[in-house]
Structure formats: C-alpha cells, structure tokens
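Two proteins were folded this term; both appear here.
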Amino acid sequence: MQVILVRPWRSASINGGCCSAAPDSVALQGASAGSGIAADHSSPADHACDGAMDPVAQTYRLLRDRLPAVDVQMTTADNILFLLPATYRAARRKYGWWEAARQATRSTTAGAVIVDGEVAGDIQTMGPEAVLDKVQAAAPSL
C-alpha cells in the first residue's frame, strides 16, 4: 500500500523542513532544535518542534508511527513528474484508464491525500486522524 501526501504550496520552498519550521532553518543531520537549524528528526526525541508542525507533517509522523508497513511518501504539489505517473499506475490497476487519468489530474492538488492511486481527500480539511482512518479502511489487514 502506498500513501502520498501532497504538501500545500506554502510549504513548497527550500526552507520547509519536516516541521515546516522557521524560515531560517535548514535540514542538517545532527543539528539541535532551537539553534536556528532543524534537527534531523530521526528519533522521537528529536521532535522538539511538535507544536509548530503543520497537518502534513503531523499526518506523516502519525502514519509512519502507527502503520510502519505502509509506504508513505511526501511531495510538493509541483512534483508532477512523480505524482502523475505514480497515481495513474496505481489507479489504472483498480479503475481503468479513464478514472486513472481523472485521479492523476486530481493528484496535483495541494493538500491531496492519495491512497493507492485514489485521491482520498484534502489533508487540511480531513486532519491527521481522519487520514489514518481512511488508510486503515483501505487496507483492513493493517
């Protein structure tokens, strides 16, 4: 199972780390939080900016923590070279070419949540828990 989270446009810049931290932060491994440089966030103890996380980052972490077997990808809305073919291929297996083309077109929407080629909703309106529920409903064996 693959889940793709599409970051909204406001986060589609070089300064948006996993927490969409302050504009002066950059993602460097081993840097400490609060130093103006984002930590690498490889362990739960490194998540000092939890309160500042946007819904996309919260959802990503929730899915990774609760459903480790799921392939969770995060991309920006302008990454059409990844989004269009990935969504089309997954949707075509389930729906056929016409619906696959429709889903692929919808996949480039900022904030989209894509579950196995189907645009399941908008992460801003659904929230992290609703996305988790949607993913679990799509694959009850998880």
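Next, the second protein.
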Amino acid sequence: MQDVLVSPRRFTTAGGVSLAFGDSIQRGVDTWAWEWGNRMKGEIDAKVNPQIADEYLEVNNQLPIMIREWAKDRPDIQESFIQDYSRDVLEGRNRGTETAHKYLTDTTN
C-alpha cells in the first residue's frame, strides 16, 4: 500500500512552489503528545510507586493486629484461626490486586 496523506493541505511559497503538509504535521504533533504523556506518566509513577508500596506494607503489618484485637475477647477463636484469617484476607487482597492489574494492563480492549 502506498503512503499517502489522509488530509493534505497545500501551501504555496512566494516562489510559486506548492508544498503539501497537514497529515504529516498532525503525525508529528501526535508523536510529540504521546512522548510527552509517557514522560509525565513515568515521572508520576516514580513518585507514587514507593508511596503505594509503603501503604501496601503498612496494611500487611496492621491486618494481623486488627484481627488479633477483634478476637481478643472471643475465647471461641483460637490462635490458629487468627493466623488463618489473616492469611486468607491477605491472600484475597493479593488476588484482587492481581486481577485489577490484569484489567488495567490489558491492551486488547
């Protein structure tokens, strides 16, 4: 297939030479905008990724404490159940995070 301008514009110079432009300029603007967007995303990712990781680790540390406090006044809940509950909740959160990541990075849609 031959490369042709989709929306050519013509500009006539003072010397009478007609130059075609239009689609090629738009392609340049699109490329620039795409590069600029990627650079901005990279800068934001570099800033927030450590914050997200810290928050994730903080929840991992707080969850067993919260479950243990919940179970403190309940003699029917054994220590092994507390550990199982903590593990189940954290594993469920990991599954949810992985599923969300798949949807957010799926480029087929």
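The first strand starts at residue 9 and ends at 12. Residues 23-71 form the longest helix (49 residues). These notes refer to the second protein only.
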